Automatic annotation (TrEMBL):
One of its GO terms (molecular function) is endonuclease activity. Residues 108-324 form the Endonuclease/exonuclease/phosphatase domain. This is Uncharacterized conserved protein YafD, endonuclease/exonuclease/phosphatase (EEP) superfamily. It comes from the Bacteria. It comes from Microbacterium enclense. The chain crosses the membrane at residues 45-65, 72-96. Keywords: Endonuclease, Exonuclease, Hydrolase, Membrane, Nuclease, Transmembrane, Transmembrane helix. Pfam families: Exo_endo_phos.
Length: 341
């Protein structure tokens, strides 16, 4: 007669330790380790991590069934499955919505991969989205000028500017395109760039209009963690203004914003457009991964003066040569009487 499996001490201990480990991995910001090396990279790819945990859970479960006992293998299967489902739950809560609708302002961001995406492709993106503001990390002044020329021939008038990294930083510039209908903008040279990679701040000459920030902090690599963290704090400082819009490749997900604002999807005083629109689970990098598994590290952030109408990740440009997908957000200005400076 077959014996009934019994719960062993090793099973109970492994379940307990596994549950603790799963909780930390699921929500590392809860214990303040979300911006540490390795952890920062892992939580950027929650979809991949959830899939990996699910595969390991199946393997551990198969071993437990083969052994016919509630031991370490069974406990690991339970803990791994719980961790996988937890990450899936976070992604579902953040949402997969991707839509565009009308608004006062359309903001686009696309890391062009140092010329990987051609000026013609960037111009096509601007035309198709009817963008008013375009943040272009890894795009030099020559490419930005060529985009402006293509758009002008299509009857679209925009201005461009480019910022280089501080001395000692990377040689990859960041450009911005601003529609003429927004008036004349000039870069605020009193504000230094993010360390390592360039970011800039542009303000309306006549003072009427939002402050625009094209941002590209360093990635969270072992040798650049300090610069990356400083770059995120630089963005939080820019978001002290209410009438500000930040767009770019932030090399961070909303998980990394924790501790830099009042809640997870807030950095400084800015809200994440993807989170506001229910689309913060849609990944933008790298394009070789499906949207469900890629890291959502490209963002549009808005101050209190702006309301998010829609947000979309655009996989239709996956074959354009960049390793990032472009994003587009439509925004509407809030009633000035309701905005706290």
């Amino acid at each position: 007669m077959p014996t009934r499996p019994r719960l062993s001490f090793s099973f109970l201990a492994t379940v307990l330790l596994g549950a603790l480990a799963a909780g930390v991995v699921l929500w590392p910001q809860g214990v303040g380790i979300h911006r540490l090396p390795f952890v920062a990279n892992v939580i950027s790819l929650r979809g991949i991590f959830a899939l990996g945990l699910a595969v390991l859970a199946v393997i551990a479960g198969a071993i437990a069934v083969r052994r016919r006992r509630w031991g370490v293998s069974a406990a690991l299967a339970i803990a791994l499955a719980a961790g996988s489902l937890g990450h899936v739950g976070v992604l579902i809560a953040r949402g997969w919505s991707s839509s565009t609708s009308g608004g006062d302002l359309t903001v686009v961001s696309w890391n062009a991969y140092g010329g990987g995406a051609s000026p013609a492709d960037i111009a096509r993106l601007v035309r198709e989205t009817r963008a008013d503001v375009v943040s272009l990390p890894e795009t030099d002044a020559f490419a930005a000028a060529e985009v402006i020329g293509i758009l002008r021939r299509a009857g679209i008038e925009m201005r461009h500017d480019t910022v280089a990294a501080a001395p000692g930083g990377e040689t990859i510039p960041t450009s911005i395109l601003i529609s003429n209908r927004l008036g004349t903008y000039t870069r605020d040279a009193s504000i230094p760039s993010t360390p390592g990679l360039p970011s800039g701040v542009w303000r309306p000459v006549d003072g009427d209009g939002p402050t625009l920030v094209a941002a590209h902090p360093m990635p969270p690599l072992p040798e650049t963690m300090a610069e990356w963290d400083e770059g995120l704090r630089w963005i939080a400082a820019r978001c002290a203004e209410s009438d500000v819009i930040v767009a770019g490749d932030l090399n961070a997900t909303v998980d990394h914003f924790a501790g830099l604002g009042s809640r997870e999807d807030v950095i400084g005083g800015c809200r994440d457009a993807a989170s506001e629109a229910g689309g913060a689970a849609r990944g933008t990098w790298p394009v070789r991964l499906p949207v469900a598994f890629a890291a959502p590290i490209d963002h549009v952030l808005v101050g209190a003066a702006w309301r998010v109408e829609s947000f979309a990740v655009l996989p239709g440009f996956d074959d354009a040569g960049s390793d990032h997908r472009p994003i587009v957000a439509t925004l509407t200005r809030e009633d000035r009487a309701t905005v706290t400076p």
